[in-house]
Amino acid sequence: MKKSLMTLGMIALMALSPSTLAANENGLSSIDIPKVDAKVKVDGILDEPFWQSATKVVYRYETDPSQNTAPKVKTVAYIAENGDSLLVAIKAFDPDPSSILASYKKRDQIWGEDTVGFKVDTFNDERKAYNFFVNALGIQADSIEDDVLRREDSSWDAIWSSAGHIDNDGYTVEIELPFKVLRFPSSDGTKTWGIDFMRFYPRDVEYRLAYSARDRDLSCSLCQIAKAKGLDGILSGNNLEVTPYVAMDKTEFRNPPSQNQWQGDGVNYNAGADLRWGVTENSVLNATLNPDFSQVETDAAQLDVNNRFSLFFPEKRPFFLDGAEYFNTRYNLLHTRNISDPDYGIKYTGKNGGHSYGVLASRDQSTSFIIPGAQRSSVYTLTDSNSGDVESNVAAARYSVDVGESSQLGFLATNRSADGYENTVLSVDGSQKLYDSGTLRYQLMYSDSDNTDDMQQQFGLDPSTTGRGFEVNYSHSDNHWNWYATRSDFDDDFRTDLGFLGVVGNTKDVVGAGYRWYGDDNAFFHEYKISGEFKERHLTSGQKYEQQREVGFQLKGKYQSFFFFGSANRDTLFEQIWFDEQFHWMDASFRPIGNLQLGFYVETADTIDFRETRAGESETFRVYADWQVNDHWFLGFNTRNTDFTINDQPLFDAVISNLNTSYHFDDKSYLRLIVRYSDIDYNTAFYSNPDQVEKELRVSRQLLYTYKWNPRTAFYIGYSDNGFEDNRVSQFEKTGRTIFTKFSYAFQL
Questions:
Q1: Average pLDDT for residues 66-94, to the nearest whole number?
Q2: Burial group, residue 666, by CB count within 10 angstroms (0-12, 13-18, 19+)
Q3: Per-residue pLDDT tens for 227-266?
Q4: Contacts for 12 with CB less than 8 Å, ≥ 6 apart
Q5: Mind listing the pLDDT tens digit for each residue in 649-669?
Q6: Residue 229 to residue 489: CA distance in whole angstroms
Q7: What CATH architecture does domain 2-230 belong to?
Q8: Range(s) of the chain covered by CATH 2.60.40.1190
């Protein structure tokens, strides 16, 4: 009771503080960040006296779904710094605190709940920003926003402190953000950062509230946020973080029906360390020795039947994620998931003025990459008849320079090499803002490859091959209209063995346009959009092999609902046969209650059986549910069913399901169960391959307990297994099982 009265008293004193009132009178021109000589206890209770000296920032706008209107609820932020950290508190008032949506959950998964936070553009170049958000219970989400490529990378994780507290007025969060997790210019004196404060208020719709207005006629986002001044004498560089780990696992496997006895090498022990050194305020050196790159979380099951191109899986490993944004280009020429089993790695990234740079070197104990084509791609692994997997050296370098107020020019080089094999890729890319709503983007690429004898035999490659590719894109986006035009062209022999590119040997032209309009605040739907697109592809010979026309209609409304209706016609040349394909689909999601999100996807299509080169029809239905049962228990489930027929006779029937359920004991520890399920029935009468199985069922499971102090200090213990059933065995058979544990600790020196 005494603490609650003290908190109310502090808020009242801050509301009356002349210095904080004066700071707001300047509007967007400047938010002064005062220096305080104090430490903070991050508990969501504003009982420290220094908050009276903090700058008060009142949220002024609802920017979505309404455009820059008065916010429906009051939100006030307070900001200061103490030389070591940025200190932020946000009071989110709520007329009905019982409707606040907040739960204990995994980091970066708080979206859809009551959330507050801020973004900072530390270089004040209106190109990149750090985003930090917290739900009402203090669970964190952070990301790096790239306003040039229009991307946001939520895989980046920083070590910072936060807490939330719900009371009768709403909720309050406290944030302590150490300057050593940020990169900023190493200059003396007063600094100017771009800054904005935001709140997501999910009720009948999800309202976005902010301090800065948002003009939808501008194609840039960071050019519209406020400026913060102060931060004299703050330092980020010369900080060192060392994260050693120890791990143990026992893995056994077998291969029924030929091998029913479990095989294994006993208990495996492993140890290593990651290093992160802030050399200066704006550059970081990362290194790793004998890294543990095992996947703690299993990848979601995906349908890999009648699929011509390689499946994509995202990067999740900390060493590669830190500073990954410095290597980004419009095309994914450095997909570090391709570096599957390195024994060491070193990376240096930074920014000096308008110049950004990054270098990466590693040695991979296994060498796999994509061999792309115009109508198929394959994953190839270098092997040696004596030693098995072939090691390769990996290197990448990136440089970009800011041009003018909102443009950028960059260069990227990658190289992968082993005995008798090498692939080098060079790229130049740029983004040029033409006017407020229009941007021109381009990328020129060149590859040079030396191919092994086995690659020459399997894929018909020459001993040495070169290729080039380019893309030019123009896009316009304003409050109502968007339109775009893109041309891309890749030679048959262009290859990026460190990237992810499955389609080459073609020229693609795409044009599209859309018109968006808005309903009244009280209407069920508040946003409508109609769109259309035309796409055409040609082989390098000049032969047209694909033409597609597509229209769509989109709705957004109450219950946070989203509906998209689409229809397309595609003419496709495959194996010298033209196919006429019709597609119709619907994609929808909504929240009938705040803690339950439901969605479904329905598609009917005339399509192609790529195994036997014949026309077919498919029907796909996908449904998913994300249910926060209570503050601690989450249940997520999705399933997809695809029926493929030939002349009304079944070819295959596939069911792919993923279950993810977790119980969070508090903000640091949780128990999680993951189940991946795939069940495919084939009609063997329609396959020319005599070895085609009639049934293929695969299941993988994982039970994991985690205690995570921060993103890099954590303890894991778990069990996983997998198995299959098909016509070769009489029952479901396990093929692998593992028990594992890992402990890592981040020493911040």
A1: 96
A2: exposed
A3: 999 999 887 756 789 999 998 989 999 989 888 899 998 9
A4: none
A5: 999 999 999 999 999 999 999
A6: 46
A7: Sandwich (2.60)
A8: 2-230
